[in-house]
Amino acid sequence: MKILSVNIGQTRPYPWRNGTESAILKSPVEGNGVAVTTLGLEGDEQADLRVHGGEDKAVLCIPQSNYALFEIHQGFGFLGENLTLSDVDETQIQLGDQLQVGSAVLEVTQPRSPCWKLNEITQDSQFLKRYADSGRVGFYCRVLQPGTLERNEQVSLLHPEVDNEHPAISIQSLFLAKHRVQSRNAQSGDLELLALAVQHPALSSAWRQELTKLLENQQP
């Protein structure tokens, strides 16, 4: 696996819903690497800090293969990601995985929670549904060790130790379980998987709160 593109974006106004500030569209950084701290990439912005950014969601990663999967013919960063990664997808990335890039170390904290703005940038009213139904939504990382991220750098992937309390939970399976439960279309094992994810130390606080409330609402 390697970094194909490092992308940052600035907040700007869009006409969506009678006026929306967003930094969803990001552009590749050319030349030298970009510093990454516990709050994200240098020069990158988020418009709504209630749902974007912060230490648990410092870096958004999306596999290159998602561009082909969703027939996106735009440059990297179009889907809002900070890092575009080769040779991996959401079935292979697990909650708590660590990505080492040079001196920087990132930890996978949650799947992306895609929003309506994806329909706007793609100009496709059904895009968000197809994106969410696939579970190929990308994933967020916290920064365990600050450093520098650069295009074409190799990424070492370290899986967490697996035991009965903290089994392997792929990003795709975690997102789809939550998506189905929210849609009242839960499959066998979905609630059990969410209950295990809540106990995982790497899970973001936002998803821990969401999953806890979701599970409480399933009680008879």
Automatic annotation (TrEMBL):
It comes from the Bacteria. Residues 27-158 form the MOSC domain. Gene3D superfamilies: PK beta-barrel domain-like. GO terms for molecular function: catalytic activity; molybdenum ion binding; pyridoxal phosphate binding. PANTHER family: PROTEIN YIIM (PTHR30212). This is MOSC domain-containing protein.
